[in-house]
């Protein structure tokens, strides 16, 4: 059987995303106006942290889109053909993140006096099942949590379907979460810094060693499999590259780590995405008569969020910022354009969105809150999330073709 290299396999992501076009000035202007008006609204009605988080969200969305910084595609490339270029950018991102997070968490540095806490979550059946299910879902849904938001901002129509069912799945997961966390076995949260006696300095060193080992493993696997390289992406030259075209993955990795650290210092917790989806879905469910307030998920600290405006929720503001930032970035590259739907990719998006939403609630977060934020916070659950999501990705490689979705191939990989 003739096998195509990665660069020749049909990619479910739009090919016009990789061709530079004239800036869509009307869209750029519209995006800036929406961001400005939302910022004014937040300044006049919410705490000072909210407009700052909106700005950070805009920068996160802009960075994600311009670098095409993916988690879903990174896992898929490595599990299918052994290409670890994107995973190595993850390791750089995490290395910068732990370097910034360590002093922030150790000394409680924050901009507005908020108590600073990382994402350190329990390790149990809930995490194992949730991360594995999320790994399958992101490969069917066409993007992870951050990928869904920035793809929506970029105009990929099918990702609106993914987002809708992501919200539904997250809402169902919120309802079921007490069963998974209270009735099934789990260990208490484990921090490499505070649960082991290593302190933040020792935990930082162990983390850097682990990132180095993972980087080395990806290189060894690439050589063994003779993995094809990632296709180059056209870009502007010089300073124009900041605004248009593709950013290097390694540069974006550093920017994302810095922005996550700034988010931690602004609101007291790292960047997260999917708790906002559970809030949106639960509020809609409450409007149609569902007794959401009785759910265990919305007791205690979460109860106030359910009653307050969504604009008082910092994760919601970040999510809106990511979408708008990606929209402006796509328009700057002349790339915003709605795409066509077909039955198979809609079906994959429905299933993928539901699995991601449900899995994210069970696993205490997604690729951002659990994987990125968890590992940056020195939590063992972040590493376990990554391993189980890779396992889910492997299974999804056999499922994707059923929905007409491509799987990268090489001479030593899937035929």
TrEMBL record:
The keyword Transmembrane helix applies. Its main location: membrane. Keywords: Cell inner membrane, Cell membrane, Membrane, Transmembrane, Transmembrane helix, Transport. The chain crosses the membrane at residues 27-44, 50-71, 92-112, 124-145, 157-177, 197-221, 242-262, 317-336, 348-371, 383-403. It is found in: Cell inner membrane. It is a multi-pass membrane protein. GO terms for cellular component: plasma membrane. It holds the Pfam family Sulf_transp. It comes from the Bacteria. Belongs to the TsuA/YedE (TC 9.B.102) family. This is Uncharacterized protein. It comes from Virgibacillus chiguensis.
């Amino acid at each position: 059987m003739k096998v195509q290299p990665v660069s020749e396999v049909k990619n479910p992501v739009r090919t016009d995303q990789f061709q530079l076009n004239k800036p869509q000035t009307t869209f750029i202007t519209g995006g800036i106006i929406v961001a400005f008006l939302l910022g004014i609204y937040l300044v006049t009605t919410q705490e000072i942290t909210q407009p700052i988080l909106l700005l950070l969200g805009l920068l996160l969305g802009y960075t994600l889109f311009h670098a095409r910084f993916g988690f879903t595609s990174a896992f898929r490339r490595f599990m299918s053909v052994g290409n670890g270029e994107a995973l190595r950018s993850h390791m750089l991102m995490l290395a910068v993140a732990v370097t910034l997070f360590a002093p922030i968490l150790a000394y409680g540095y924050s901009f507005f006096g908020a108590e600073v806490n990382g994402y350190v979550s329990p390790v149990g059946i809930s995490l194992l099942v949730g991360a594995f299910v999320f790994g399958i879902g992101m490969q069917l849904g066409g993007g992870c949590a951050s990928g869904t938001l920035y793809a929506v901002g970029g105009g990929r129509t099918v990702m609106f379907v993914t987002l809708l069912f992501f919200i539904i799945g997250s809402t169902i997961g919120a309802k079921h979460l007490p069963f998974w966390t209270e009735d099934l076995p789990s260990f208490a949260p484990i921090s490499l810094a505070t649960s082991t006696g290593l302190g933040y300095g020792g935990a930082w060193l162990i983390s850097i060693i682990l990132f180095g080992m993972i980087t080395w493993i990806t290189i060894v696997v690439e050589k063994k499999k003779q993995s094809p390289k990632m296709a180059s992406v056209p870009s502007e030259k010089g300073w124009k590259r900041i605004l248009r075209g593709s950013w290097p993955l390694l540069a974006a990795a550093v920017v994302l780590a810095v922005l996550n650290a700034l988010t931690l210092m602004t609101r007291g917790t790292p960047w997260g995405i999917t708790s906002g989806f559970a809030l949106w879905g639960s509020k809609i469910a409450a409007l149609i008569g569902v007794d959401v307030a009785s759910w265990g998920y919305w007791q205690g600290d979460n109860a106030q969020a359910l009653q307050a405006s969504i604009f008082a929720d910092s994760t919601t503001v970040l999510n809106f910022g990511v979408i708008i930032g990606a929209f402006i970035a796509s328009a700057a590259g002349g790339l915003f354009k709605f795409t066509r739907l077909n039955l198979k990719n809609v079906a994959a998006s429905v299933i993928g969105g539901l699995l991601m939403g449900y899995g994210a609630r069970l696993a205490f977060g997604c690729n951002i809150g659990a994987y990125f934020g968890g590992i940056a916070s020195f939590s063992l659950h972040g590493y376990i999330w990554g391993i189980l999501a890779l396992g889910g990705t492997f299974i999804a490689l056999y499922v994707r073709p059923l929905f007409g979705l491509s799987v990268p191939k090489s001479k030593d990989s899937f035929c």
